[in-house]
Amino acid sequence: MQIALAPMEGLVDEILRDVLTRVGGIDWCVTEFIRVCDRLLAPSTFEKLAPELAQGARTRAGTPMRVQLLGSDPVCLGDNAAFACALGAPVIDLNFGCPAKTVNKSRGGAVLLKEPELLHAIVREVRRSVPTEIPVTAKMRLGFDSPDGALDCARALAEGGAEQIVVHARTKAEGYKPPAHWEWVARVQEAVRVPVFANGEVWTLDDWRRCREVSGVEDIMLGRGLVSRPDLARQIAAARAGEAVREMTWEELQPMLQEFWRQARRKLAPRYAPGRLKQWLGMLTRSYPEAVALFAEVRRENDCERIDAWLGVPDLRREWAEAG
Ligand SMILES: Cc1cc2nc3c(=O)[nH]c(=O)nc-3n(C[C@H](O)[C@H](O)[C@H](O)COP(=O)(O)O)c2cc1C
Q1: Cα 248 to averaged position of ligand 1 atoms, centre (Å)
Q2: Residue 206: which domain range?
Q3: Are the beta carbons of 212 and 218 closer than 8 angstroms?
Q4: Total structural domains within the chain
Q5: pTM of the predicted model, to two decimals?
């Protein structure tokens, strides 16, 4: 059984991947989608969205990271996949689930679920373009407007060469509206031989139990649930091993918040760092009542130094000076 941290553009970046994978329980993570249009991307694009490539494609905790590509041109995707592998990508994941209008308009993401032949052609070409030892995997929604074509899509992906398929159990039309239709994950798993991962609406250990029961699959990908409850993968891993499950307290979360903020301050422009912190804090309010108070305090704050003080990391400048 594997537990994966979901790719989340604009949310799960290098910083959050680093902080979350240190908690434990996550077997692998994925970059935000890297959009491929009509040319070979510059190395700087990969450096920006997948900086872990420079450290063996692992987060600091040692969790392997996959590179996700999004596009519709099989040859161009194949060329970029091969380039990503040359830069160190150990697995190429293909995105067939993005619901964004701008992306779908230019024939990327979930809109491709209307064209199973194209899904097949993309995976086949990417498979052909990357070294044989590099797995190609895919992430799909159930369909665009309806799940009627889900099994055809999954078969197209598997027959094209996808070694694993993550199913975000909703159509594009359903957006992120609950529920996720885990029963469809079971249908997809019946239709293909490759491992299928269940994804969508797993926020708690109980959700995971129900998802496993309904979907019948062991492998799972966690998105917003893990961001708002950073020890969710660790809880699931403990439960599945028959060990006692202990929930992370708000106090235990503090060093993670501080570390997140330290990195945000170092890596992002001062006008962006507070927004990223508020984004994560906003999600933590779902699981931690204490986050509600902190969120209310920093909500209107855009001054990085005042946020340093709030989070108890007032000596950042000295830390940086000492680090040279
Ligand atoms: C802010 C945000 C960004 C996302 N970006 C990506 C992405 O880059 N690639 C992808 O395959 N899915 C992306 N997703 C979808 C998630 O990976 C996941 O499938 C979805 O959130 C459902 O899982 P969850 O209910 O556990 O969050 C994104 C979702 C969110 C909320």
Answers
A1: 24
A2: 3-240
A3: yes
A4: 2
A5: 0.96
